[in-house]
Design goal:
Helices cover 35% and strands 27% of the residues. It has 273 residues and is α/β, with parallel strands linked by helices.
């Protein structure tokens, strides 16, 4: 069995964070040919559900960069890589010392997701909170309302590059944590940071799916550093033209731009669709 794994933002989705009509038709052609495919995204299930609906994504899906694996047929998560209380305390201390507001993402009873945060310090954080609430369809709540039994999937933030790099260096001392960072879409002078459990990577999740589904070959597509662990698990890995240079250097090949249906056009030629 050959499995195609798609990153979403910056890869399969266009600049409007949507699937183009050409890409949707390509997915339909893959499904007709019996070619298996799924997603590995930094989004939550709820932030991706509407995008994926009706597009043939029937296999287990990787969300939150591999922190959780969702089985559509069972309507349940099969794997969780959550942060421990000690790790959470250390991470939050790193944020406090740098005066950056952490956004705490949870997985709660009934597959409920939410985001909690302390008082916001800057306008960019307030805009980010509004954007996350609108685009990801998640409740944004004060940290005082965080349930005691909530599982923490990841902690994110936005801020000046030097500040974010400083937090990433502090987190690097935590053996079981990994920090991803990149240029913020909201402002190119800022960077985003996302902290996960080290075992909750896209690569780890792809490895799980290979065993569960009996996969013999993996083709994957991604554009950012959170895709590199997945590249390492793949037999072939492709980066769109819009990916960072260091990501493209790790790819089997560089293909078309994400806003020009680069992945879909490659697939049509590769599989003669």
């Amino acid at each position: 069995m050959e499995l195609i794994v798609f990153d979403l933002d910056g890869t399969l989705l266009n600049r409007n964070s949507r699937l183009s009509a050409f890409t949707c038709e390509t997915l339909r052609l893959l499904q007709q040919r019996g070619i298996a495919y799924t997603v590995a995204t930094g989004r939550t299930l709820h932030a991706a559900r509407e995008l994926l609906a009706g597009q043939g994504f029937e296999l287990p899906q990787i969300f939150k960069n591999g922190v959780v694996i969702w089985h559509p047929g069972q309507q349940a998560y099969s794997h969780h890589y959550l942060l421990s209380q000690a790790e959470i305390r250390n991470v939050l201390t790193a944020f406090v010392t740098r005066e950056v507001t952490p956004f705490i993402f949870t997985l709660e009873q009934g597959h409920r997701h939410a985001i909690y945060h302390p008082p916001l310090k800057h306008d960019v954080e307030r805009r980010l909170a509004t954007t996350m609430g609108q685009q990801r369809s998640l409740p944004i709540l004060p940290v005082a309302e965080l349930p005691g039994d909530a599982g923490i999937t990841n902690i994110s933030a936005i801020g000046p590059k030097s500040t974010i790099e400083g937090i990433a260096r502090l987190v690097a001392g935590e053996v079981d944590l990994v920090a991803y960072m990149g240029v913020a879409l909201e402002d190119s002078s800022l960077c985003w940071l996302d902290i996960h459990h080290r075992d909750g990577s896209k690569g780890s999740a792809v490895s799980v799916l290979k065993k569960e589904l009996g996969v013999t070959r993996v083709l994957c597509f991604g554009d950012s550093d959170n895709d590199l662990s997945m590249f390492q698990q793949a037999d072939e890995c492709y980066a769109p033209e819009n990916a960072r240079d260091d990501i493209k250097a790790q790819a089997t090949a560089v293909i078309g731009h994400h806003d020009e249906d680069g992945i879909a056009r490659f697939l049509r030629e590769r599989f003669d669709l």
